[in-house]
Structure formats: structure tokens, C-alpha cells
Amino acid sequence: MSVSNPTLITFVIYIAAMVLIGFMAYRSTNNLSDYILGGRSLGSVVTALSAGASDMSGWLLMGLPGAIYMSGLSESWIAIGLIIGAYLNWLFVAGRLRVQTEHNGDALTLPDYFSSRFEDKSGLLRIISAVVILVFFTIYCASGIVAGARLFESTFGMSYETALWAGAAATIAYTFVGGFLAVSWTDTVQATLMIFALLLTPIIVLLATGGIDTTFLAIEAQDASNFDMLKNTTFIGVISLMGWGLGYFGQPHILARFMAADSVKSIAKARRISMTWMILCLGGTVAVGFFGIAYFSANPDLAAPVTENHERVFIELAKILFNPWVAGVLLSAILAAVMSTLSCQLLVCSSALTEDFYKTFLRKTASQVELVWVGRAMVLLVALIAIGLAANPENRVLGLVSYAWAGFGAAFGPVVLISVIWKDMTRNGALAGILVGAITVIVWKHFELLGLYEIIPGFIFASLAIYIVSKMGEPTRGMLQRFAAAEADFRLNK
């Protein structure tokens, strides 16, 4: 193994700590609500940091710094779009979704919420939304497993096949054992580790390259257009990157954090903590990639691994500039980013299979203990399918992340957003929104129309479909009463 012992030891300690948290959460998991929503007991800090960590995958420490390293600041539009989208999601959806899910049958999953909110007796809304979750999230999980495998492969010199299992095993273990609480508690630790890595690394790179002035001169000498926010971009290109922010309204693993908050009162504080964390992390990520240009142009003899694969810029800087113990901690931050997102996605798939298929259609009388164990079995099942998809290292799974993000953003985003702010939305409107959003993304992606990111037309067409179809019918009295009660509860407690 081509790795220093301290790095290996740090990884082992980190993984052991995550699994230990899983076993601690196991003791607090008594029923299905505990397993898939933590018994709605998350305080503002855990809500904020777990929402952030579950959102930011390996892309934060590998993909984005690599893109900035290659192209300069013109790649940072995506970070700006994400910050705006996340803020609006916290502002308009978080608190309202928390009370709406409680007032609508104490819903534990998004399909469960849609089904109760729109009094869907047919089960069609629940099935379609659960299928959308399973299809897009299995792709998403596979991309997380590929990112974890790449990290183990490059850090420890393992074969891809060994790295695949090594990277996935710990995440599967703590998700399987401890469910939602384990995932949320580990996310909080992982978010702390990620922000530590992303604030410390750019500072040390700056010092290593001789301070701000020297660094900026070196970046300019390499290519002055690195500073140009509009380099090689078009209006559609910028809009497409900013459009990533629309995805937040429909991501089930992030929305689950809002549903699990202990009360609406926690949400405002959680929003401030989460947005501060996110801005600092994304700023640090951009800085790592940008300052890396100066560092490797000054040290070309060290640049070979980054030239070969620009996504390794953070990994190489951590290895070169820090002693092996600190480097181990910083590289654990990449593992943290991968594990935090993967664990949430496994759990959302598991809860869709358990709550929305098994309990609803197969075993209505199943005991809580049985449902928890079915939930655990489903974590394993989804993980094995995702590992199967990720088994071919040439697989372009990482490229499918934008597809899955768009799929959720367009299929669920408008439905979730409009369902918590417009009382007149109907069940047929919700169905039309999910179908139009998902189909638009698939068709738009296939034909690559206008070069525009498929989430934007998907979101617009789904919103129009919801409005037009809802106007053709009208909500029942029960739907209006529950909506009004939840909205009053939200305004009283926010």
C-alpha cells in the first residue's frame, strides 16, 4: 500500500467513530418514525449541519475545486446558484413543510405527505413519487459509491474493486444500525470536519505560495482570464449553472431534515447556521481550486497527479502541505462528504420502500419492530444495487449526478413548494406536476435542447402543469381546513 501509516490510522479512527455513533443511535431507535425521521427530535444545530452535509457530496471537495483549477472563477456560478437556492428553500419551504407534514397524518416521507395532503385514496400519487425516488436515488447512491472508491483507490493504492467495498462498507454499517439519528449525528460531525478542511487548506496554500499578492500575480501570470467570471460562458451557460439552485426544493434527503426538526421555532436559527456553513464551505472550495493554480504553477514538478486528473487538486495539496496526521484528517473530510450524502440517500430509499410500499400495500398491520428491520433490509438491498451499478470504474455514474439532481428538482420541487404555499392545489395538479417535471427532464436531457440545463424547463413546465390542472378542479373541504390549520400553526410559532 502506497500510503503513510498516519493517514491510514486517521481514516480507521474516523470510520470507527462513525460506526460507534451508529450503535449509539441504535439505542434510541424504537419504531419506524425513529428509524426514518429520528422521532422529529433534531435541534437547530443538527438540523442545519446535517442538511448541509447531506447536500454537499464528494463534489464539494473534488469536483468543484477541480473545475475552478482548470477554468478559473467562471466555474463559480454554480456555487452562487446553490447558495441562493438553499436560502430560498430554508425561507419558504423548511418551516411550512415541518408543520404541513405534522398536520397531514404525521407524514414520515414525501410520498406519505403527498398522499395525505391531497387525500389520494388511489395510492397513485404515493406509488409514482416513491418510484421517482427509487430510480433517481439509486443512480445518486452509485455516484457516491464511485466517489468513495476513487478516494480509497488514490489514497491507499487499492484496486478499484477492493476500494468499492471499503468505501461503502462503513456508511452502510452505520445507516443500517442507527437509521436517521445515526445519519444526522454523523452528518453533524462530518459537516464540522468539512468546514475545518475547507477553511484551513486555502490559508495554508496562500502561505505556501507567498501571500495574497504573490498568489494572485502567479494566477494572473498563468492565465489572466482565470479572474474573468464570464470566461468561455454564454448567457444560457450562466443560467444553467445558476439553475442548480432550483434543485433544492425537491431533494428528499434535504427535505427530510426539515421534517425531522423538533419544532418550527428551531428553523430560523438552523437557517442562519446552515447558510453560514454553506457560504464558508463553498468559498473555501473555490479558494482551494483557485489558489491551487498558483501553487502548482510555482511547483510544476509536483503537478503531475493534478494534470492527470484535476479533481485531485484538494487531495494533492493536503498530502503535500500538511504533516501526514493532519493530511489524514483533511482527506477524511472528503470521505465525510461522500458518506454523509450516501447515508441520507440510502435511508430515503429505504423509507420509500418500507413506508410507501411494504407498510401501505403488503403489511398494513406490521409491528414497529418488524418495520424497523424491513427498513434495515432495504438499506442493504439499495446499497447492493448501487454497488452493482458502480462496479464498472469506466461507468459515467458521476456524470449522472446532475441528471438525478434535475430529476428530483423538477419532479418534486414545484410540488413541494406550491403545496406548502398555495391552498388551492389539488391531487391531480400534484400528479401532473410530478409527471411533467420528470418527463421534461428525461426528454430535454435526451435531445440536449438549447444547451440549457434540463432542471430549468422541467421546473417551469411542472409549475405550469400544477397551476393549470389544479384550476380545473378544486380542493376538498378537509384539505383546505388542514392547510389553514398548518399555516396558522406556522405563523404562530415561526
Provide the descriptors you would attach to this structure in a database record.
mainly alpha, Sodium/glucose cotransporter
Mean pLDDT: 89
The CATH class assignment is: Mainly Alpha
Question: How many independent structural domains?
Answer: 1
Total number of helices: 21
CATH architecture: Up-down Bundle
Number of strands: 0
What's the short story on this structure?
The chain is mainly α and 494 residues long. The protein is 77% helix and 0% strand.
Summarize the helices and strands and which ones pair or pack.
Blueprint: H1 5-26, H2 32-37, H3 44-55, H4 63-71, H5 77-103, H6 110-117, H7 124-156, H8 160-208, H9 212-222, H10 235-242, H11 252-260, H12 265-298, H13 304-308, H14 313-321, H15 324-362, H16 368-390, H17 401-411, H18 413-421, H19 427-447, H20 455-472, H21 477-493
Helix pairs in contact: 1-8, 1-15, 3-8, 3-11, 3-12, 3-15, 4-12, 5-10, 5-11, 5-12, 5-18, 5-21, 6-7, 7-8, 7-15, 7-16, 7-17, 7-19, 8-12, 8-14, 8-15, 8-16, 9-12, 11-15, 14-15, 15-16, 17-19, 17-20, 18-20, 19-20
